[in-house]
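TOKENISE THE FOLD
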Amino acid sequence: EVQLVESGGGSVQAGGSLRLSCAASTYTYFTYCMAWFRQPPGKEREFVSSIGTDGTTSYADSVKGRFTISQTRDKNTIYLEMNSLKPDDTAMYYCAAKMGDCFPSWDQRAFGSWGQGTQVTVS
């Protein structure tokens, strides 16, 4: 099981930016997918973005053009650069990982490893 640790959450005014980080323990399998999900207050957890070991990315429509996902060279850390933040982006953000390709990245049931979450509040 992969251990995931998120960081970088906080409070920001609308229009501001934050960068989230997710560090993973060493992977033993070659192909894997890492993703960000979020759970707004009182709502279900939803897909935000994903990135595969081949660099392929995917984004929810609600964050396209504002959020950017990236990974380090060793692919064990991913980032979520969040710009032009809106109050609707307020949520607990979770990092997740699964073996194999990302598709379908929005199916959170396929992700076996999850971080503890980091809170993002936009006012």
